[in-house]
Specification:
This protein is of the alpha/beta class. The chain has two domains: about 110 residues, Rossmann fold (3-Layer(aba) Sandwich); about 170 residues, Hypothetical protein af1432. About 55% of the residues lie in helices and about 5% in strands. A five-stranded parallel beta sheet has the order 2-1-3-4-5, with helices on both faces. Helix 1 links the parallel strand 1 and strand 2.
């Protein structure tokens, strides 16, 4: 079975649109017209739900209030909640994540977006359930059995990251090649850094692809806008860092927690003029500093919907000029000393 979804929306037409889109992936469905009816359904069923799709603005009990009730329930607290809303203001988005939502989708629905996000969060829920089960088993195993299960758990973390990366490719402006190159650049910088080791390089290779996973929470029309952002649009775009952190930091898995740090801090700047927290210098985690440089290096050397690719020599000059302001000076020095190795990575178009 693909999964069972509860859709809660006070507008019947919205439920029907969602059903018409999602039936393509063979899900089972239940639906309610308000939060109170949804709670009645949950109290009277033995169905194991895999996802809740909640409208925000509803009478009696709105989506935020319903989410709070679900997160208090031992039976339903781990089931992912996606908010369905026409509101894209920053406060509403932040509130949704604070209450335990994992994502939100704006109306009117984009079919590919609704399908991709639904599939991803159900897969992640199933993967997380598997991890919890294995952790329980781990406590009762011998040393060698524990080692085998730990390896299996680590692989499962990588599988979860791959699932979320595929979602990012499907719904954002990121490409698979960009994600792969950022991973390779980040891993190389870690191997060159005197204070890091092969374990750090491995973590960065697997976790750095998640640096922009928060872009899945940015409205489609903003994310794919070809021109410059307005001030309000840029404020919404910047929330991809904190939204990703709230999504990923709930995990107890080491790779996912590293991905949370990277997603949160890769837009911070050495001089404290970055976002979202204006961290400065060593306040920024070394993983965030590394991916900040890797992301800029690759983004500037390749075409995006809003710009043409820069010449590699111009990008090198750009990074060199921002040594000690935007970028960690030690990382810039390592980059300059090994420039040919980095050129080889970004030449993969």
């Amino acid at each position: 079975m693909a999964g069972h979804i509860l859709i809660v929306d006070d507008v019947a037409e919205n439920i029907q649109v969602a059903l018409n889109i999602l039936k393509e992936d063979n899900y089972d469905f239940s639906f309610a017209n308000d939060g109170e009816q949804a709670l009645d359904i949950l109290a009277s069923t033995d169905t194991n739900f895999d996802l809740f799709l909640l409208d925000v603005m509803m009478p009696k009990l709105d989506g935020f209030e319903l989410c709070q009730q679900l997160k208090k329930s031992p039976q339903w607290k781990d089931v992912p909640v996606i908010f369905l809303t026409a509101r894209i203001d920053i406060d509403s988005i932040a509130k949704g994540f604070e209450l335990g939502g994992v994502d939100y989708i704006t109306k009117p629905f984009q079919a590919c977006e609704l399908l991709a996000r639904t599939k991803t969060h159900i897969q992640l829920y199933h993967a997380n359930t598997f991890l919890k089960k294995k952790n329980i088993e781990l406590k009762n195993k011998t040393k060698w059995e524990q080692l085998r299960l730990v390896t299996e758990l680590e692989k499962n973390q990588m599988d979860m990251i791959e699932i979320m990366t595929e979602l990012m490719e499907a719904t954002s402006d990121e490409t698979g090649r960009h994600i792969k190159r950022v991973a390779e650049i980040s891993s190389l910088l870690a191997r060159l850094h005197p204070s890091l080791n092969d374990d750090d390089a491995n973590v960065l290779y697997h976790a750095s692809p998640m640096h922009d996973i928060g872009k899945i929470t940015v409205p489609y029309e903003i994310l794919h806008k070809p021109g410059s952002y307005t001030e309000d649009e840029f404020e919404i775009m910047k929330t991809h860092t904190t939204n990703a952190y709230h999504l990923l930091n709930r995990s107890e898995r080491s790779l996912i927690k590293s991905a949370a740090i990277i997603a949160h801090e890769h837009h911070e700047k050495w001089n404290g003029m970055g976002y979202p927290r204006q961290l400065k210098g060593d306040e920024i985690h070394i993983y965030g500093r590394i991916v900040a440089l890797a992301d800029v290096l690759d983004a500037l050397t390749h075409t995006r919907c809003y710009k043409e690719a820069w010449l590699v020599d111009d990008v090198i000059l750009y990074i060199k000029e921002r040594r000690g302001t935007q970028f960690d000076p030690e990382l810039v020095d390592l980059f300059m000393e090994n420039i040919e190795k980095f050129k080889a990575i970004v030449s993969d178009r």
